[in-house]
């Protein structure tokens, strides 16, 4: 009883000590934080160099915290690199994140962690293997490109899809690091493109698009498989796959076409005609492979990712533009409920689609109404979408909405609404007259922005048919007396000058009124007054008769006896005199130019060419006009300064046979891929070999835990040997392997003897003599196999360093297993 109590007391004391140690370590970790929440350098280094994994984790978390705050933590690089082979998964992840961030800056120190990262490629945890190849390719040091190739070669055949996906990303990074390995990387990429896992295909296609987008011939056998797994691929991978398949179809799949089918109708009522009425119906016929892609892409229009929706819309718009695409409207309108950034991108694409087909969004005009919370950019795009989608049947609704926006207090919204009304006026003459009546009422408004924009739009509408709007010009001339906005007055004067040749009774009176207050006008208004005077005088000197006799009589008379000058001459001289002494340099230069051109009647042709040249009919295009060259979903639609004009390939007229797209069965990675070559099961040749191989495999399975401990220290090529002089062997040999190589003959005999002993143990007493005879035959067969292996090793000498290294590891595992078996 006393002994049990003492044991319990000892257990409690031990637990108490452990609790106190844990509390002390927690206090130490907490005390290392300063008042400002930042780790001190000496504490961080102490944690990183500690023997305990928990303290290492605390140090790495401190570094991750400083990295997230934008602090420079390159001073800890040597201490972090030491933990690249840590046992804790969390510590390794943080170390790998640190290496990805600062590996390129400290390339020399980053090379110290290459061996540890190479060892992680053979780790049992697939996440560690994936992170290892990711970090290895993320260290952008050109000298380690061959090592990255070896890691990629091993990772593309890994059993885990996570590792293969990381290998696909690593291929792209290795290509950026050294583009001379393009053909080798393309071969590795072809293996991943044919992968059966949709988790790998998405990353492989992204690398394909970035590395070799023109090698579409690599997709022949994968086309139909991609169509079937399209819904399962990750969202951002779907964007790349849709773009790639769109380009593939335009090159290798026949284009769809409209086919007319004739149907016999009923006989006409007129018996005398006796003719049959035929009805024609058009059907859109497409290739089965194209139909497969369209059927697979249509569900993606309901994706939660807006980029996937835009990629699917681009696919339908590029492959079947002639078909009925009315189903594209609801998915795009649905995205208008997303945040403002997504709305801006979606509305930019909607505007381009509406330019191509204005009926596509006609049923959804209410979704383009402007809300008070909309930003100016979104409001502008919504108004543009309204004007592009309206037609004669819906223009009344759109004009009512735009007129409401024109009365807003937001100056930007007012200007955009009035300009949109001008674009709606281009639909028909009746709508133009309706818009003009409303705009004329806004001239007397107190809002300068509304008045100025209204007169600008009125000028556009009048120029469409000048002869039909003479009365409108007269109304504007009357409104000039009450107009106070300088922009409005300048616009009215310009319009009167344009009609100077048609309405001769309007322009001179307007010029007379403007001459009275010339000095009080704004500079822009003064320029238009001078231009109006020049236009009127050009018409005057053109129609003035040439009378040589009268000129000769005038020359004989004295200056005081000359007849009085014409009122037009006096008015023109008065305006030019006022402009001559104005403070504006531009105005004085314009007046000097006009006076020199109109100084004599002989310069009338030049004046007519300069001042009476016909103006082209104005056209108010949509702000998105000209963006049709960009693809739907491209960045060029959002920012025109981005040169994202990678066009789609043209439709091919000579497409190959559809049999090139027949699927090839993807072979699964063999279960024994990770085992040594000598341990893989081979074809059965005889009863004796069957017994021997079964026993050997069982014994190897028994000693496998011991061999695993040895493989944790598997040797990889060191930096000194990798960057040193080329040796005859591709990889150095460990101490245990050196001992095995020196005693090669002894190993062969031990192997044969061990196999003989194993067979004797398994066989019955009645078969001892037969087993001894079989063992002799097996020894002779083993010698033959050794000779064949020596001949094969000479042929394999030209292989890469990774193969030789793998063979040496396999031989060491075999030797360890045989030694244990011989010990038994």
Automatic annotation (TrEMBL):
Biased composition range(s): Acidic residues: 734-814
SUPFAM superfamilies per record: ARM repeat
TM regions (residue ranges): none
Main subcellular location: membrane
The entry's keywords: Membrane, Protein transport, Transport
Residue stretches of biased makeup (Basic residues): 679-691
Annotated source species: Lipomyces starkeyi NRRL Y-11557
One Gene Ontology term, aspect cellular component: endomembrane system
Residue ranges of domain Clathrin/coatomer adaptor adaptin-like N-terminal in the record: 40-601
InterPro entries: AP3_beta, AP_beta, ARM-like, ARM-type_fold, Clathrin/coatomer_adapt-like_N
Upper classification of the organism: Eukaryota, Fungi, Dikarya, Ascomycota, Saccharomycotina
Similarity field: Belongs to the adaptor complexes large subunit family.
Record field: compositional bias (Basic and acidic residues): 709-719
GO BP terms: intracellular protein transport; vesicle-mediated transport
Region annotation Disordered: where it falls in the sequence: 672-691, 703-824
Subcellular location: Endomembrane system
Name of this chain's protein: Clathrin/coatomer adaptor adaptin-like N-terminal domain-containing protein
